[in-house]
Design a protein that fits this description.
With about 425 residues, this protein is α+β, with helices and mostly antiparallel strands. The protein contains 16 helices and 16 strands. The protein folds into 2 domains: about 200 residues, no CATH class; about 210 residues, no CATH class.
């Protein structure tokens, strides 16, 4: 019930429906597109990862009400074998997932990926009132292991298995992009295109906002940095170590080693300089270096940035700005708890759709945190924690002519919290 109230606030499912083209004959349709999307996304939030789960879930009257079914008992179904099953089964949902770009007689529903991408950014923009002065866009990638012979399946040497390499872009907790890619490409492949459209869509609403890109060394590429410099977008990227960089901080490393010897604790010394590669960079850029001595070894790190020393001093830029990108990795882990790694269909297009579904399930949970859980002890809880304490709890369901009654146990441990969240969502 909390998920439905959250959806009413952000209108996710209605707007998602508009990102599809439905070529089915309306006279023969028993499961509306919005209802099937709601069934699939709610199930992911509740922990049902497979389409096989819907062979049992399709009989759930509570889920039928939440998805908008007027007959939660399923007694009005046309076929005798479907009576008592108000929701779509696994085969119907499978056809939805496998919709192709050009509908045929068997697959008449297909999604518009560009429209879903715009929706993710629109939801991010609408979550801010008033407009922020500055936003930070975090870019990162992860591996999704493959165990079959999916389209564009390649072996990745670093991860040491066959996998996909999806690109994620976040702003704080807000997910702006989830792009599925084969693993035989650079970590930054396609990132400029995604940033271009996000920045353009954002500045159309917030023309004065300052934008900073933040990512590890896998995204430190001339193409992305030069684009940022020509479009008034700042960046701070990790920079891979090399002999020239390490030689440039030799004195700082000696100073850090001296501090470590004197105190017995890890020691850091920061410095900065301008640096240019021999071939790949078109210009000299500011590099901030951390010379660090820890137990048993040196630990130097480098970042390259367009930010000036007046705005961000070396130590603050590394410790406060760059290192804060680690929070994005927690949000990527949340995607796995919403089954973004269940990419077992044969085609890239169908797997991209599954990735969208997991991403939208995350967006719904994130909105629940932002709108319903503000000021509570679960305001920053992970998706797996929220699932067990709020949406997925036991109740007695009773269907009458006019209502569906949901009787929750008086001993439910989070009863007061549930009431608070429900009231905040209804405000």
């Amino acid at each position: 019930m909390l998920l439905r109230e959250t959806d009413r606030r952000i209108r996710l499912l209605k707007r998602l429906r508009d990102c599809f083209r439905d070529g089915r004959n309306p006279a023969r349709v028993e499961h509306g597109l919005e209802q099937m999307l709601a069934q699939r996304i709610y199930a992911l939030v509740l922990g049902y990862e497979d389409l096989n789960d819907h062979e049992q879930l399709r009989e759930d009257p509570r889920l039928a009400v939440l998805t908008g079914k007027s007959d939660p008992t399923g007694q009005d179904r046309k076929r005798q074998g479907d009576k008592g099953k108000p929701l779509a089964g696994k085969s119907t949902l499978n056809r939805l997932e496998h919709g192709i770009a050009t509908p045929d007689r068997y697959k008449k529903v297909n999604y518009d990926g560009e429209a879903i991408d715009r929706l993710l950014v629109d939801l991010w923009l609408e979550a801010h009132a008033p407009a922020p002065e500055e936003v930070i866009l975090d870019l990162d990638t992860t591996d999704v292991a493959l165990h079959g012979h999916q389209e564009n399946r390649f072996f990745h040497g670093y991860y040491n298995h066959y996998c996909y390499l999806p690109l994620y872009i976040f702003s704080g907790e807000h997910l702006l992009c989830a792009r599925l890619r084969p693993s035989n490409s650079d970590a930054s492949a396609g990132s400029r295109k995604e940033i271009e459209r996000i920045v353009a869509q954002g500045r159309a609403v917030w023309p004065e906002v300052r934008i900073i890109l933040r990512a590890d060394s896998g995204f430190c590429r001339e193409e992305l940095m030069s684009w940022c410099e020509s479009h008034a977008v700042d960046y701070v990227f990790g920079l891979a170590r090399n002999e020239r960089l390490q030689a440039g901080i030799e004195s700082e490393m000696q100073a850090a080693a001296g501090l470590y010897a004197a105190t017995g604790k890890p020691a850091r010394v920061f410095t900065e300089f301008f640096y240019q590669t021999h071939k790949s960079w078109s210009r000299s850029r500011r590099v901030v270096a951390k010379a660090e001595q820890i137990e048993g070894k040196e630990n130097p790190r480098f970042v390259v940035t367009s930010l000036s020393p007046q705005r961000w001093a070396a130590a603050a830029l590394y410790e406060q700005l760059y290192c804060a990108r680690g929070d994005m990795e927690n949000h990527i882990k949340e995607q796995f708890s919403l089954f973004s790694d269940r990419l077992s269909t044969a085609t890239m297009r169908a797997n991209q759709f599954r990735l969208y579904l997991s991403s939208l399930a995350y967006v719904l949970l994130q909105a629940l945190r932002r709108l319903g859980l503000r000021g509570t002890e679960l305001a920053h809880a992970q998706a797996s924690t929220l699932r067990l304490k709020l949406p997925k709890i036991g109740a007695q369901i009773r269907v009458t002519v006019r209502r569906v009654w949901v009787a929750m146990a008086t001993s439910y441990a989070h009863r007061r919290l549930f009431e608070t969240v429900y009231q905040q969502l209804r405000c």
